Amino acid sequence: MTAQQLLHPLGWEPGRRLDIQPHEGMLVVGSAHDGRHQIGSRGELPLPAPARRMCGIKPGQPVLLAALVTHDLLVVHPAGTVIRLLADLHTRLAGAGHVR
């Protein structure tokens, strides 16, 4: 996966060491001096298979990437999580009478 457009605002260059942790159905990626993973030479963001499986991310499945610049983090949201959150939002909107 290439995430160059989000890596730049974070100041993360190729070779940067990373810590990747599953958290509540998403992957949280942070800069870490002793991280087990690193950004590839072309800006590839590694997403280890065991971590992907823990979050239900299948190979080739789209994900939503969000850079939390002030926290030096990048969050990987599986498509299923984004779909569920949007469905919940739309249900609340419809229930509030905003959608006709």
Molecular structure report:
This protein has 100 residues and is an alpha+beta fold. It contains 3 helices and 5 strands, in the order αβββαββα.
**Share in β-strands:** 25-35%
User: Helicity level, as a percent range?
Assistant: 25-40%
Strands in their spatial order, largest beta sheet: 3-1-2-5-4
Low-confidence segments: none
Tally of strands:
5
Q: In this structure, how is the largest beta sheet organized?
A: 5 strands, antiparallel
Average pLDDT score = 88
What overall geometry do the principal axes of the alpha carbons give?
A: elongated
**Radius of gyration using CA atoms only:** 16 Å
The SSE string, one letter per element, is HEEEHEEH
- State the helix count: 3
Q: How many angstroms does the end-to-end distance come to?
A: 39 Å
Helix vs. strand class: alpha+beta
Reconstruct the topology from this structure.
Layout: H1 4-10, E1 17-23, E2 26-31, E3 37-38, H2 49-54, E4 63-68, E5 73-78, H3 79-95
